[in-house]
Write a structure and sequence with these properties.
Helices cover 45% and strands 14% of the residues. The protein has helices spanning 2-9, 23-34, 53-60, 67-70, 85-99, 107-118, 122-146, 159-165, 201-204; strands spanning 45-50, 73-80, 150-154, 173-182. A four-stranded antiparallel beta sheet has the order 1-2-4-3, sandwiched between helices. The structure holds flavin mononucleotide (FMN).
Amino acid sequence: MELLQDLNWRYAVKKYSTEKVDEQKIELILNAINLSASSCGLQPYRLFVISNEELKLKLKADSFNGQIAESSHLLVFAAYNKITTQNVQDLVSLTAEVKNVSIESLDGLFVSIDSFFRSRTDEQNRHWAEKQTYIALGTALVAAANLRVDATPMEGFDAELFDKLLGLDEKGLHSTVILSLGYRDEANDYLANTKKVRIPLEEMVHTLN
Ligand SMILES: Cc1cc2nc3c(=O)[nH]c(=O)nc-3n(C[C@H](O)[C@H](O)[C@H](O)COP(=O)(O)O)c2cc1C
C-alpha cells in the first residue's frame, strides 16, 4: 500500500527551508481536511490558513516551536465554543439540499442530534468539538504526506494569543491544535533522516478472534 510509504516518509519537521508550498497543493490538503469524518457530520470547527509572515511571527511569540514562523503555511484548527440548535438546523438544511430531500423528512435526524447536544453541558460539547479537530488534523497529515509536503502538528503554542490575534472568540471559536506546512531543511533539521520510532504492532494491537 503506497500510503504506508507516505506515512514512513513524513515526520514532524523541526526546521523548515524557505521554500513555499504552492497554493494548488494547499488547496488539495484543505479539500482532504473538509472530507474528514466528524461525529454526526457536524464539522464543529473552522480552519485558518496563514501565510502572512508578519502574522506568523506574531503568533510564534514565545513558543519553542520555530516552525510556526518558519514554515510556508500555518493551519489553525479552531473548534466551536458551543453546539447550538442553529448548528444542527444548518446541518439538516445542507443535508436536505445536497441529497435533494425535504427538511421535514429529516425531522427525526434533527431531533435525535439536537436532543443529544441539549442533554449535555456546553463544556462537554466544547470538549467534543475539540476532539473532532484532531480527526481533521490526522487527515491533513496524511494528505500532506501524500503530496510530499512536510508538516508538523503542534500543541506547543499560546492558544490565548492565537484566539486574540485571529479574533476567534467573536466567531464562537477557540484554537485547539495547529499544523505547519512547508519543506524540510534537510541539512539543518536534526530529525531529518532519522529512524521512525514506533512500538511493535503486536504491542499496539490486541486481536480478539
Ligand atoms: C497533537 C500533537 C501535538 C504535537 N505537538 C508538537 C509540538 O508542539 N512541537 C513539535 O515539534 N512536535 C509536536 N508534535 C509532534 C510529535 O512529537 C511527533 O508526531 C511524534 O514524536 C512522532 O514522530 P513523527 O510524527 O515524526 O513520526 C505533536 C504531535 C501531535 C500529534
